[in-house]
């Protein structure tokens, strides 16, 4: 696939038509660009194929969820288009004041994941219908073992109602850097990748169950691609061995073999 051109950083209205220029300059230009060299220096941070996100039109980006670093990585990768991050509603009361203020700068969308329904994703659907980027982590919660777990029905609801193209993404390595229940560690390697755009009509034709399964496989394939790349670059040092070494396809094959 040929690389597309990148929207210049100063074309703020092309990047997002409803956000002010100062907000775009500070929070979606200065902050992400400043974090890239720091991430590269300490964690070998790399972004792969960010040019696969279309320059215009609605896009529903989906990504696996390994730690609290994932939204930041996704934001840096998609800084050209920008998006409103999503988080579970209960997080509002768990955040420290400084973190709550920072998230407000990015217009965080808080959703009730315990009682999902059409109203749950109303704001995100509005973003998509207005031709902007929507971002969702379909697992609904962080993965404690780094594997890609079952996708919730939210992504199917958004797909059906918006009919926006799907941009699959995957983050890898962050489980070592910020394990569940732990703070940020000083060692590790992390990467994020954008996959090929997926036609929404193809997914809708599959039906809910098959479409969610297909998307989960695509995201896990991207994750395993990054895992192999990091291992190669670090000569096997990172990521640390664990359950995430087995791909979803291998897990399914093993389960099928046991059932026979």
How would you characterize this protein structure?
The chain has about 260 residues and is of the alpha/beta class. About 45% of the residues lie in helices and about 10% in strands. It is built from 10 helices and 8 strands. The chain has helices spanning about 10-15, 20-45, 70-75, 95-105, 120-130, 155-160, 175, 200-205, 210-235, 250-260, and strands at about 45-50, 60-65, 85, 85-90, 110, 135, 165-170, 190-195. The strands form 2 sheets. It has a 6-stranded mixed beta sheet, with helices on both faces. Helix 4 (about 95-105) links the parallel strand 4 (about 85-90) and strand 5 (about 110). Helix 8 (about 200-205) crosses helix 9. The longest helix is centred in the last third of the chain and has 26 residues, at about 210-235. It is globular. The model has no long low-confidence stretch (mean pLDDT about 90).
Q: What's the short story on this structure?
A:
This protein is α/β, with parallel strands linked by helices and 260 residues long. It contains 10 helices and 8 strands.
Keywords:
two-stranded parallel ribbon, alpha/beta, single chain, 10 helices, 6-stranded mixed sheet, 12% strand
List low-pLDDT spans: none
Terminal CA distance: 40 Å
Put simply, the count of helices is: 10
Strand order of the largest sheet: 1-8-7-2-6-3
What is the count of β-strands? 8
- The average pLDDT value, as a whole number, equals 92
Question: How do the helices and strands line up, and which of them pair or pack?
Answer:
Elements (H helix, E strand, L loop, with lengths): L11 H4 L5 H23 L2 E3 L10 E5 L5 H9 L5 E2 L1 E3 L8 H9 L3 E3 L10 H8 L3 E4 L17 H9 L3 E7 L1 H4 L13 E4 L5 H7 L1 H26 L14 H12 L1
Parallel strand pairs: 1-8, 2-6, 2-7, 3-6, 4-5
Antiparallel strand pairs: 7-8
